[in-house]
């Protein structure tokens, strides 16, 4: 009997030097370096360049890359007008998907699929993604978009464009760490989708739009938003254990818990947990963190034997919330970080490209014949 790998689990289709995951031991590395070290010592800009180039950049290389990002932050005025005209109340991911597709129309190199063009477009997309997301949020609120600044880091500039005021160094660094933790995660659904699109020799914009479409689905993006909904539903820490136990007894899912790959703690969740505790205390929202603590303990007590633990989404929502980011923009923030991983993975695959064309086991009828319409029952 033919074995079918549902969800392509365990199927190997390519090699990659970018990201390694050992889900059993809770290990995540980029270029062989643990994610904890990237979060502690690096920045979004540096990790993005490292993945795009395949090596730890020199100071000069990083400075050049940073200057390229800053020089490409602005988006065309025509695109700002288009974004401002989007219907109010639409999905933030729907708006982002459409805006990135629109952006391609203003890029003279959009159809160029050479390695150099893909790299140049990758840099432009990484730079402009934050400007697009901030513009969508502000225009949906009836506010004027805030122009980017070139004297701020990538993380600080996004928060500035989003809120119209410069963040504190601590807020900027916290957001930067959150971006670092989400930059890449192996062959997840959106990264695979981007590669599948690019494998047809389609352009970089189409690959990224495809990835955004995949991320938009609630089984991939959106879990951290669902965590915040769960916290609001629970209300207070004293109700958390009963809530979790009732859900588990009813065989229902706990948001932010469990992962297709990890059978131990997601290492990114361990990094965010400490920052979530610190920021929540400073912002006077410690009850959220206290609820999460109770949920985590209850879940680990009941499900750790099955390899089910909190994932990165478990704490990221509270961090974003404390930074003043509306929960419906948590998934676009995911895209803001993952754009670097998408582009790096596409560029890597394209160096030895082969059209992705999987097969399926046919399980339909056989030996049938066409029946004229008037003779059908």
TrEMBL record:
Pathway entry: Carbohydrate metabolism; tricarboxylic acid cycle
The protein's name: Citrate synthase
InterPro entries per record: 2-MeCitrate/Citrate_synth_II, Citrate_synth-like_lrg_a-sub, Citrate_synth-like_sm_a-sub, Citrate_synthase, Citrate_synthase_AS, Citrate_synthase_bac-typ, Citrate_synthase_sf
Source organism of the structure: Deinococcus ruber
Keyword Transferase: yes
Catalysed transformations (reactions): oxaloacetate + acetyl-CoA + H2O = citrate + CoA + H(+)
CDD domains: citrate_synt_like_1
Entry annotation: catalytic residues: 259, 313
Gene name for this UniProt entry: gltA
